[in-house]
Structure to design on (710 residues):
């Protein structure tokens, strides 16, 4: 397999394309609403109408509008059907030859939810069948890897990523190019590339969707990274809660090996790269990179102090590059379109786009990808359509248990790493949970603290004991049994846990408490007993 | 944990005729009995046997040349692994944030009340295990609950009552007061 063969596959597929393609979402969200039965129904209806030479039915990845699923899109007519049931299949097929599909809800692809998005990471989501490598190749897949291997030196690749301004999408926002350069420079015979797919933040499903909808984009990004830093072995660590993602990745790796896009002598070069999947076992702390490495090594997922950083001392003591799923999915487009193109998107310090999972009390639930610098107001009100049933939006929670609640009066804050940190939250991995005026913020703070308390690995005392005490105080406040002394103690504990915990879990655990204390103090104060 | 004083030796368990041991042994062989394959092996074991019994943990420790304490430590550290047999059916309520703001806590309370056990436990007749999940990533269809491996989205209180009652084969009126 070489670049010309890749193109030949793409052309062959394009030539074989039928006039109309029905895209039926087969991601976990829509599968839970019987989209596989729906797909069978569509295939049967196409047969029954005698349209099998003109119409293809494709099971595709996530289109993003998960709250309205299952979705069916007609390509190239631009029709979108929402909440489709298997019984609706004949009506949709009948509508292909002009006319209406009575009784089937119609969506609007020109709605701001779609129109305001800019797709880089989710470029193939909802368009290709994730289980067929040929479709990824037809969409231009693996061309970036071919380009990197044939026309660029590893140093060129690192330089391109550095100039693109890409920052880690796992939440902390460390410059990706800098990380790659450190691993590339590190001395060592063996090096590893690890993809962190342990998406543990409750309310976040960006990485699940990417892995389910476009697994090859992550594998291609990992392969390019391995070439750049000089690694020949990769691990993809995926949550055990994502069975469909695991199954599709296994298939993708198998197909890529068959085409010599993974394995030995990739694309007829001397470059070798093997990827193994490691399945998580339900521990939030494993999203922390040192804990994740411990888990890959078959041990308890407990973090260790840094430095030494994994870039120098990682898996089995070897230099290891760890990036998040979304970061890897950004790599191929950057190599294909150039660093300048990527750097032209976003803000001065945060480049590119970011995928968010917009959920909670909001009309349009789902995945969105917007340029960095888009304001929260645009996301919540224009894309999200505000709160349903006439309620008003009170706050947005970003960053999961490590983030904070941003009140409605700060919705003109642009989403970039620095601006979100300035208002007491974090970018995080991309969960965005909208809360309406019925939401009790003390309860929310207690909910997150209960989460951190359960997920604390128990290694360091501030986190292990501090989260328990903070949770106890929050429960006391919520029950109306606390005094102002308890709030003072809570604040003191927050500062202690934040500054003295070993890893990010403990260091950020107080964030939901601190942000609700700052922005919604009346909800705490109104419940206090006089001393 | 209770550990049998004479753990089954590899030869006898593999020769016991139970096909599951053969599959497990093949999995470990594929990993060349490397200690770092422990989590993979535990996953496979739970998939085959439903849970990790003390005998199984001992067997794995011997096969991978690991101290039993290490195997037990890993098995108890991760939420996914269960040391007790699950019920005939399972009902897993997602308590991720999106589900939570859409009332998942109330759904869980309903399920617990009908089953008469708190989350993480199995009914005495071994019919149903009530469990919770951190986040299924199905936030678009929140609140979501998994019944016997099938995710059901946009669940209402009436629906969870009906489904749990169906799994337990009992009437919705019968509630159990929990501590």
């Amino acid at each position: 397999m070489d670049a010309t063969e890749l193109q030949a596959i793409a052309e062959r597929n394009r030539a074989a394309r039928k006039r109309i393609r029905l895209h039926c979402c087969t991601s976990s969200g829509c599968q839970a609403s019987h989209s596989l039965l729906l797909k069978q129904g569509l295939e049967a209806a196409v047969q029954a109408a005698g349209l099998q030479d003109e119409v293809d039915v494709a099971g595709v990845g996530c289109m993003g509008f998960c709250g309205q699923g299952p979705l069916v899109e007609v390509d190239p007519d631009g029709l979108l059907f929402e909440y489709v049931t298997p019984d609706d299949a004949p009506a949709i097929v009948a509508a292909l030859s002009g006319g209406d599909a009575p009784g089937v809800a119609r969506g609007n692809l020109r709605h701001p939810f779609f129109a305001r998005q800019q797709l880089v990471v989710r470029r193939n989501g909802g368009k290709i069948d994730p289980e067929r490598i040929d479709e990824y190749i037809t969409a231009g897949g693996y061309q970036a890897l071919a380009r990197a291997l044939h026309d660029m030196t590893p140093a060129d690749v690192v330089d391109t990523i550095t100039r693109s301004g890409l920052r880690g999408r796992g939440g902390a926002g460390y410059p990706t190019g800098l990380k790659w350069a450190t691993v590339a420079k590190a001395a060592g015979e063996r090096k590893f590339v690890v993809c962190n797919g342990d998406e543990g933040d409750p309310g976040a499903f960006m990485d699940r969707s990417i892995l389910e909808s476009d697994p090859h984009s992550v594998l291609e990004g990992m392969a390019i990274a391995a070439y750049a830093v000089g690694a020949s072995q990769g691990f993809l660590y995926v949550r055990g809660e994502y069975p469909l993602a695991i199954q599709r990745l296994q298939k993708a790796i198998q197909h890529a090996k068959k085409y010599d896009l993974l394995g030995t002598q990739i694309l007829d070069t001397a470059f070798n790269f093997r990827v193994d999947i490691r399945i998580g076992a339900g521990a939030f702390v494993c999203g922390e990179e040192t804990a994740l490495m411990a888990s890959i090594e078959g041990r308890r997922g407990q973090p260790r102090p840094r430095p030494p950083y994994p870039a120098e001392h990682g898996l089995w003591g070897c230099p290891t590059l760890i990036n998040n799923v979304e970061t890897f999915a950004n790599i191929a487009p950057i190599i294909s379109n150039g660093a300048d193109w990527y750097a032209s998107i976003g803000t001065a310090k945060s480049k590119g786009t970011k995928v968010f999972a917009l959920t909670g009390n909001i009309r349009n639930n789902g995945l969105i990808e917007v340029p960095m610098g888009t304001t929260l107001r645009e996301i919540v009100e224009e894309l999200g359509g505000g709160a349903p049933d006439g309620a008003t939006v009170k706050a947005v929670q970003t960053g999961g248990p490590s983030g904070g609640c941003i009140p409605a009066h700060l919705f003109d804050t642009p989403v970039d790493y620095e601006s979100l940190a300035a208002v007491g939250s974090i970018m995080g991995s991309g969960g965005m949970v909208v809360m309406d005026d019925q939401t009790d913020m003390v309860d929310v703070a207690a909910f997150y603290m209960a989460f951190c308390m359960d997920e604390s690995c128990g290694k360091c005392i501030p986190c292990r004991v501090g989260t328990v005490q903070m949770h106890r105080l929050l429960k006391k406040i919520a029950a109306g049994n606390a005094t102002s002394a308890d709030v003072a103690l809570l604040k003191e504990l927050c500062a202690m846990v934040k500054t003295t915990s070993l890893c990010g879990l403990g260091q950020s655990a107080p964030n939901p408490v601190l942000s609700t204390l700052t922005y919604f103090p009346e909800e705490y104060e109104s419940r206090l007993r006089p001393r | 944990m209770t550990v049998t004083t004479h753990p089954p030796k590899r030869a006898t368990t593999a020769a016991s005729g139970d096909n599951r041991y053969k599959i497990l042994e093949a999995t470990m062989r594929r990993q060349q009995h490397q200690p770092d394959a422990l989590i993979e092996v535990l996953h496979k074991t739970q998939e085959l046997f439903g849970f990790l019994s003390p005998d199984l943990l001992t067997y794995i420790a011997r096969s991978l040349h690991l101290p039993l304490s290490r195997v037990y430590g890993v098995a108890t550290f991760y939420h996914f692994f269960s040391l007790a047999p699950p019920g005939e059916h399972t009902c897993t309520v997602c308590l991720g944030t999106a589900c939570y703001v859409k009332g998942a806590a109330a759904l869980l309370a309903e399920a617990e009340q009908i089953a008469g056990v708190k989350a993480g436990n199995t009914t005495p007749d071994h019919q149903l295990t009530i469990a919770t999940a951190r986040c299924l990533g199905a936030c678009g269809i929140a609140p979501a609950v998994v019944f016997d491996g099938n995710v059901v989205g946009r669940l209402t209180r009436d629906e969870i009552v009906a489904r749990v009652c169906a799994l337990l084969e009992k009437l919705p009126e019968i509630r159990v007061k929990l501590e």
User: Anything to note?
Assistant: Residues 353-436 of chain A form a domain with the Ubiquitin-like (UB roll) fold (CATH 3.10.20.600).
